[in-house]
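Appendix B, record 7
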Amino acid sequence: MTQREFSQFVTKYEKLVFTICYQFVKDYHEAQNLSQETFLSAYRHIDTYQGDNYKPWIARIATNKAKDYLNSAYSRRVMLASSEEDSVETLASVKQIDSSQQPDEMYISKEGSGTIEQMIRSLKEPYREVCILKFIEEKDTQEIADLLGRPKKTVETQLYRARSILQKQIKEVYHDETK
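Structure tokens (predicted):
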């Protein structure tokens, strides 16, 4: 790929890459840095890519760069140092792991991070709304049904399906981390 072609490639996908990075890290400047790292990595490996559609490939690179950043020791140190008081509150809010919990509940309890919240907020409706109420606002099923004006059974079904979607996403994260 020539420099001109790669420049067009960057122009075509720069907004997508930045958006993906920003959705993960929630920091404008860090998202810019990660976008640059994404395109640098793509530049190094573009000749080895076996496909015609670059969009999913560059999106996966951006996602992996953002996940690597969030999992890095540097990121954890910066977050802890940025607000010791917030860190103490966050640590205090993390629940103990109960062996009777579902895998998604164990992950939420263990991580206590924004990663799960991002996954929940990225769900499509009607799952996003019920999950936000259930997992983030910690409302029970009947309260959710009353708030949304839906039958309790409908809310239970939506939560069941949403849990299944989240479990698949969590398994992907764990699978990617073990590689």
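Remarks on this record: Residues 94 and 112 are 5 Å apart (CA to CA). Residues 83-101, 106-112 have pLDDT under 50 and may be disordered.
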